[in-house]
TrEMBL record:
PANTHER family in the cross-refs: CONSERVED PROTEIN, GLYOXALASE-RELATED
Name of this chain's protein: VOC family protein
CDD domains linked to this entry: SgaA_N_like (cd07247)
Source organism (scientific name): Streptomyces viridosporus T7A
SUPFAM superfamilies the record matches: Glyoxalase/Bleomycin resistance protein/Dihydroxybiphenyl dioxygenase
Pfam families: Glyoxalase, Glyoxalase_6
InterPro entries reported in the protein's UniProt record: Anthracycline_SecMetBiosynth, Glyas_Bleomycin-R_OHBP_Dase, Glyas_Fos-R_dOase_dom, Glyoxalase_6, VOC_core
All copies of domain VOC, residue ranges: 20-134, 148-263
Length: 265
């Protein structure tokens, strides 16, 4: 992995224990169109962000940082995708752990203004993720309300081997779901679930390969799906009920995929 996807500044929460998902970001070809889409869908507002790789904005909800969006260089023909970041007490040490376990460090570690230090990596199967070391304690986070990240799920070939990579790098425990036809592991940190790993074998999309999907909380998944369609996005997986709530997979105008999650009632 050599690209710079997801390079906007991670922030937006209380101090995160190492390994905790702490930020999501997106690199796009048009900042204006992307701001229009997500502003209308989630009610985000936008402020200028740091520019380690070019122009970027911070997405805010009620004044709190939620996500980062950066502009892809015009000469870089890269997939547009949401990237999750995981907290680290030492980004350099985490990057070295990624390399030693068979992953790749494509960007960094490097300082992002005075906010902290980041690295953009990929696991041994190629799924891209970020590492974020905050310079200062963070403020109160916004979670569990519409328009905020709710969950991150890795789609890969087979869960067990890749889960071991993340467990070694970030100190997770795993909770496998025992089933003859369902390959899924929940990654836990200090007993609480923080991310999922789903193995789908040959069903991994050829145009994407293994990848992380970010779920965003919504009030009503069906209404949000209609809104995505009206805003020029695409519906990839129609709304359906799951053990965790009503969920749908969609894509924005540039093709960045994400999921919508309405919690159980």
């Amino acid at each position: 992995m050599t690209d710079a996807r997801g390079a906007a500044r991670p922030n937006g929460g209380t101090p995160h224990a190492p390994g905790t998902p702490c930020w999501v970001s997106l690199m796009v070809r048009s900042l204006d169109a992307t701001e229009e889409f997500y502003g209308a869908l989630f009610g985000w507002e936008f402020r200028p962000g740091p520019q380690p790789f070019g122009p970027s904005v911070r997405a805010l909800l009620d004044g709190h940082d939620v996500a980062g969006i950066g502009l892809l260089p015009p000469d870089r023909h890269l997939p547009v995708a949401w990237t999750p970041y995981f907290a680290s007490a030492d980004a350099d040490a985490t990057a070295e752990a990624v390399r030693s376990r068979g992953g790749t460090v494509g960007v960094g570690p490097l300082d992002v203004s005075a906010a902290g230090r980041l690295a953009i990596c990929s696991d041994p199967c190629g799924a891209v993720f970020g590492v974020w070391q905050a310079a200062d304690p963070l403020g109160t986070s916004v979670t569990g309300v519409p328009g905020t990240p709710a969950w991150n799920e890795l789609t890969t070939f087979e869960s067990q081997t890749v889960a071991k990579f993340y467990e070694t790098v970030f100190g997770y425990d795993e909770e496998p779901e025992v089933s003859a036809d369902f390959d899924h592991i929940t990654l836990r940190l200090d007993g609480r679930p923080v991310a999922g790993v789903r193995g789908v074998g040959r069903a991994v999309p050829r145009d994407r390969g293994p990848h992380w999907t970010t779920y965003f909380t919504v009030t009503d998944t069906d209404d949000a799906v209609d809104h995505v369609r009206h805003l020029g996005g695409r519906i990839l997986t129609p709304a359906r009920d799951s053990p965790h709530g009503r969920v749908a997979t969609v894509a924005d105008r540039e093709g960045a995929r994400f999921a919508l999650l309405q919690g159980p009632r």
